[in-house]
Amino acid sequence: MGCAGSFPGPESACSAYLVEADGFRLLVDFGAGSLSALQRYASLKSVDAILLSHLHCDHMMDACTYVVVRRYAPDGPYPPIPVYAPAGAPERIATAYSLDEGPLDDVYTFYALQPGSFPIGPFQVSVDRVNHPVETYGVRLEHEGRVLAYSGDTAPCDALLRLAQGADLFLCEASYLDGVDNPPDLHLTGGEAGEIATKAGVRRLLLTHLVTAWGSEAETLNNAAATFAGPVEIVRPGARYEV
């Protein structure tokens, strides 16, 4: 539903990915602008659970706006839904929504992430800390022998390599251009995403979180293809993939 990096782009909201199995819909990240896209691809109350990789605005801000949907809909209020997120999410989201209305216990039931594995609906979920300035988790979703891995935001790290191991689909950020003096311990380049995909033995690489205002999509794609021999593409809003 959104794949722009760091701030909404001219054609895309920020990070938000709707993953469905057995009629269960898990929303992975809920970045700025993505609530608009949710209304194009699903009903407003069709989300069964939310997983937030970290608490930067481009990955969680529309979880604040979504409070209005669940609390004040004409056929609502809707029952609380689970939100799996780094520690501090309840206070962060409640404060961003309103300084005066208090907790969001009527809207969300929060579960603090920590490295490990646990079920969400039909999915077996594994998360681990990755290399980003704030508490951030890469994600591995497994269902009926199929694996979707998601990098979150990260620079290269061993945890991401473990999470992506043997994935059928690897959704990986590629915010920076190769060959540039990029800030350390923040994001990946296309070439680095391809290297990790190769080392992890993934089947297919999807590049996301590109900051199109600052870089070249063609260059990012070419650099990823130079380090990963399998299928690789840049994701677009509205794209659908069978895992």
TrEMBL record:
Gene Ontology molecular-function annotations: 3'-tRNA processing endoribonuclease activity
Pfam family name, one: Lactamase_B_2
Domain Metallo-beta-lactamase, chain residue ranges per copy: 13-191
Domain of life: Bacteria
InterPro entries, per database record: Metallo-B-lactamas (IPR001279), RibonucZ/Hydroxyglut_hydro (IPR036866)
Protein name, entry field: MBL fold metallo-hydrolase
Organism this protein belongs to: Catellatospora methionotrophica
High-level lineage: Bacteria, Bacillati, Actinomycetota, Actinomycetes, Micromonosporales
